[in-house]
Amino acid sequence: xxxxxxxxxxxxxxxxxMLGATGTWSRPSAVPMDAYREGDVYVIALDLPGVALDAIxxxxxxxxxxxxxxRRPVAKADxxxxxxxxxxxxxxxxxxxxADTLDTEKITADYEAGVLTLRIPIAERAKPRKITIGRGDxxxxxSG
Length: 144
Hints:
The protein is mainly beta. It contains one helix and nine strands, in the order E-H-E-E-E-E-E-E-E-E. The chain has one helix spanning 9-19, and strands at 2-4, 29-30, 33-38, 41-47, 56-61, 64-71, 90-98, 108-112, 115-121. Strands 1, 2, 5, 6 and 7 form a five-stranded mixed β-sheet that branches. It has a four-stranded antiparallel β-sheet with strand order 3-4-9-8, with no helix packed on it. Strand 5 and strand 6 form a beta hairpin. The longest helix has 11 residues, at 9-19. The chain is elongated, with a radius of gyration of 23 Å. The model has no long low-confidence stretch (mean pLDDT 81).
């Protein structure tokens, strides 16, 4: 139901980790995620630790889901001297192509403990259904 849109994304993510690169709005860092089906709902969990709720943006255009977030530096007093800074800052993004069988009108989002969880229900038209079979003699004749 979900398709990766950029085959080089994982390579970019590994390169950024090795080089310590910071994501920018023009070239954001990748967001790690899990995706799974839970009954009639697809669940996407994205790791965004340390990101403020107001710094997360979720958009759906047609079947393209885009999540962008920015982890900003913690405000420091003038007399603070940074000794170690390993937590990545900057812009993070993830794009997913959603299948036509998902109902993009009913996506819900929750953010708890640094994890953004999106729930996307399967569209009613895509769910399996039984087709009743009528008897040939039950049909009415229509005269023209």
